[in-house]
Request: fold
Amino acid sequence: MGTEMFNIRRGHPDDLVIALAGNPNTGKSTVFNALTGMNQYTGNWAGKTVGSAVGYFRHSTASFTLVDLPGTYSLLSQSPDEQVARDFLCWGQPDATIIVTDATCLERNLNLALQVLEVTPNAVVAVNLLDEAKRKGITVDLNQLADELGVPVVGMAARRGIGLDELKDTVLRLATGHYQPDPQPLTYSPEVEAAVAALLPRVSPLIPNPRMARWVALRLLDGDPSVLDAMERYAPNQHAFGGETTWLPTKSHSAL
Amino acid sequence: MASHQESLRALMRELHGDDQTTVRDQIVSDLYTRSAEIASATVTLPDGGRQFAFDRRLDNILTSRWLGYPVMLALLGIVFYMTIAGANVPSALLGDLFGWIEGYLTLFFAWLGTPEWVHGVLVLGLFRGVSWVVAVMLPPMAIFFPIFAILEDFGYLPRVAFNLDRFFKSAGAHGKQALTMTMGFGCNAAGVVACRIIESPRERMLAILTNNFVPCNGRWPTLITLSSLFMAGAVGLASGSLAATLVVVGIVLIGISATLAVSWTLSKTMLRGVPSTFTLELPPYRKPQFGRLLVRSVYDRTRIVLKRAVIVAAPAGVITWILANVYIGELSVIAHVAGFFDPFARLIGLDGYILMAFVLGLPANEIVLPILIMSYLSSGAMTELDDFTALKQLFLDHGWTWVTALCTMLFSLLHYPCGTTMWTIYKETSSVKWTLVAILLPTGIALSACFLVAQAARLFGWG
Reply:
C-alpha cells in the first residue's frame, strides 16, 4: 500500500485515502479538524523530521483516511515539507486530493493548486475563508474557477462548518471513481513546451501515463534530482510510474 | 525497473550539461502568470481594493523600520503588564481556596489518626507543592496565553518575524529563528521541535542551541514573582506592577540579545556558514476568534499546566519535604546539600539553597521556586501562598538583596534547559555532542553572567 511507505496508518484497510494539500494559513487545519473531529493522530513522515497528521471520517457508506500534508507554497522547491507533500501526492496513491485555498488571496494559492493538478487530476479545490472574503468585499466566481481549472470547486467557510457536506460529497464521488475530472495540463511558454516536446519521445516509453510523463519531463528540465531519488525510493519495482501497476491515483484502474 | 530510472538519470545528466536555469525560471514564471490569469477571471476585488489598503497601511506601521521595534516592545510590555497586574487577584483567591481545602485535609488526617509524617508528606509536601504551582502559575498563564494567542490570530507574529529577520540575518542565522524563538516563550521543548521549519541543518542547529535563552512557561512565574518582590519596591500595586513589567521586559531583551550573540558567535566558529533566504508570507490581518481562542488557550494550557504540576511538582514536593525533615546530625539533609553548594554559589551571587533548587528543578523549571521556598522554611513545608510580604520576608531573612534576586533571575533565564527540553534536543539532533553543547553552553554563560554581576556588585558595594 502506498500509505505504508509513508508511515501513514489507515483507519481500516478498505479506507479511501484522501490527501489534504494547501498553502500555510489557508485554514487547512480547520478543514482537517472539521472533517475528522477528534478522530486523528499525529506522527512523523517516514524518514523525515516533518510532522504528519492523519484523521478519519465517514461519509455516506464510505470511510476515509485523511492525510494532512505539510502546508507549502509550491511542490517545486527542495524543502523537506515540499518534498513530503510532493512525494505523497505522487507515490502515496491517494484516492482523491483536496486542495485548500484562501479566498482572500486566491491568486497566491493557485500556484500550488496548478502544480498539484499536474500530478493528480483527481482533486477538488476547496475555496476556504469565503466568510472572510465576503467581509472584505471579495467575491470569487466558483463556477468560472471550476471551468478554468477543470476540477470541482467547493466554496467553504470551514470554521463555521459551511461547505463541509458538499466537500464530503465531492470527495466521495472522486474517490469512488464516479466522477473523474480531466483538467487540461497547464500550457507553458513555447520555449518550455518545445523542450518538453523534445523530451517526451524519450520519457514516454518509460512512463506510460501521459500526464506523469509530461510532469517527469518538466522535472528533468527543472534539474531536480530529488524527484528521481524519490522515484527510486517509493517506486523501485515499478516501471518508473507505471504500466499496469500503479501510478494513477484512483483505485478504479479499469475505469481509466 | 531500476534500468528505467537509470535512463531518466542519464537523461537528466545529459540535459543539464547545458544550462537549464532559464527553463526552470520560465516554468515558475509561467505558473505565476497562469495563476494571475485565473484569478483575474474569477476574483472580484472590492471597490478598488480599499480593504487591502488598510492592511498595507497597518503593515507600514507594524513592520516599519523605525516604528516596528517600539510598537513591538510596547505590545510586549502591555502583555506582561496585563499578566502581572491581572494575576494577583486570582492567585490570591486560588491560594485562599487551597488553604481552605488544606485546613479540612488536616482535620481529616487528624480524624483518621495517621502518624504525623503521613500528614507531612501528603498534605505539607504533596498537596502544598501542587497547590503552590497551580496558584502561582495558572493565573499568569491563563492571562498571558489568550492575549498572546489573540496577537497570533490577528496575524501579528509573522510581522515580528519580519522585524527580527534583519537581526537574525546579521547574526548569521535564519530569519525563521524569530518564529521558533517566539514558540520558546511558551515552552522551549516546543520551540526546539518548531525548529524543524528551518530547512538548512546549520541554521536549524543554531535555532535549537539558542532556544533556551527565552524564558518559557515554567520560568515566567519565577521571573515575575522575583521582580514583583525585589524590583518593584513595596509601593502601590499599579506602579509596582509597572516596575516589575519593565524588569521582565528587560530580562526578555537580555534573553534575545543572548540568542543573537550566541548565534553570531557560533556561526563564526562551530557552525560556520551564510544564512539562506526564504519567503515569509505576511498573511492578511484577521479578526481574532475570541471564543475559540479562550477555549484553546485557557482550557488547553490549563490542562497542560495542571498535568505537569501533578506529574512533576507532586513528587518534587514529597522529596523536598522528606529531605528537609530527615536529619543527619544537627542538620537536615537539605541543609547539608545546600551547605555543600554554598561557597561556589556565593561566587555567582546565589546561595547554596538557590543553586540546589536549580539542580533539583532539572525536571521542570516550574518547581525551582517552590523547592527553594520549601527548603528555606525551617518547618520544611512550603509557605502560605497568598502572602507576598511573608514571602519577601522569608527571602530577606536568608540574606537576599536585589542583587541575589537579579542573579537568580539571570541564572533562571540563561541556565541549562530543563530535562524535557534536553531530551527533545537529543531527539531532534540525534547527537550527544550537540546535546552537550546545548547544555554546557548556556550553563557557562549563566555562570559567567551571574559571576560578573555578583563581583561587580561586591566591588561597588551595591545591594
Observations:
- Strands of chain A lie at 16-22, 40-44, 51-59, 62-68, 96-102, 123-128, 139-140, 153-155.
